[in-house]
Design goal:
Elements (H helix, E strand, L loop, with lengths): L1 E4 L2 E8 L2 E6 H22 L12 H17 L5 H23 L13 H23 L1 H6 L9 H43 L4 H43 L1
Antiparallel strand pairs: 1-2, 2-3
Helix pairs in contact: 1-3, 3-7, 4-6, 4-7, 6-7
């Protein structure tokens, strides 16, 4: 069953008493972002030569520099063994959020990270991973005993603070991306009304509106989107390190 709620196309599947809803636009954009990342990965993979004595290509130099950046900026505080395990997870998370934010600059495209379900899903994934690696490195007994420190009666507060950190992780990304989209829409709408009310600027109105829209999309989509992707990945790395060490 399809329902249009506002500008969203929702697919509802009724499985007995359970109703599962899907935002088709968000799902489609997520698949597009995943497909783009797969294509980029396959393209970069071809830059890795089988012969270690082969000359270094530009793609290989770029790939090496990107690996060094991810290791230093995102995984600098981990042990070498744990950093090696987390490298694919953290870098994939960063790239997915980055391209999800950047895709909003394409006309008529909607960023998946404008959907709270996406950002909270990513935050919950980080929450589960932090506990997984904490149990794997310290053991379940030592890990869960830390919730009783410094005093056992602080267990509820420690649990609330732990999960509250996850909520803020997801809401921060959603708020910045969704807020940027709303601000861009409002500014462009008000600009169009002002131009319509001032006929003498009509000849330049279209060019000004296009220029303003391009600037706002570049600012919130490219610049702010890159910053938020880096912040989200850094926080994911910090939360896992706090649990696992």
């Amino acid at each position: 069953m399809l329902e249009r709620l506002g500008q969203k196309l929702i697919l509802k599947l009724e499985l007995g008493p359970l109703v599962v809803s899907f935002d088709l636009i968000t799902v489609a954009m997520s698949l597009v972002v995943s497909f783009i990342l797969i294509l980029i990965a396959l393209w970069l993979r071809r830059a890795v030569p089988r012969d270690p004595e082969a000359p270094v290509s530009r793609r290989l130099a770029f790939l090496t520099g990107a690996f060094d950046f991810f290791h230093e900026q995102l995984l600098g505080g981990f042990s070498p063994e744990l950093a090696k395990r987390l490298f694919p997870v953290i870098t994939t998370l960063f790239l997915y959020v980055l391209f999800s934010n950047w895709i909003s600059i394409v006309p008529k495209a909607e960023s998946p990270t404008q959907n709270l379900n996406v950002t909270m899903g990513l935050a919950l994934m980080v929450y589960v991973l932090s506990h997984y690696y904490a149990i794997r490195t310290k053991g379940a007994r030592v890990h869960f005993r830390s919730y009783l420190e410094p005093y056992p009666f602080l267990l509820p507060m420690n649990m609330i603070g732990d999960f509250g950190r996850t909520l803020s992780h997801g809401f921060r990304l959603f708020g910045n991306i969704f807020g940027g989209a709303i601000l861009t829409t409002i500014v462009l709408s008000l600009t169009a009304k002002v131009i319509a009310a001032m006929p003498f600027v009509a000849p330049f109105g279209f060019a000004f509106g296009v220029g303003l829209g391009t600037f706002l999309n570049a600012w919130f989509g490219v610049f702010i989107g890159a910053i938020q992707a880096l912040v989200f990945a850094l926080l994911a790395s910090v939360y896992i390190r706090l649990m696992a060490t």
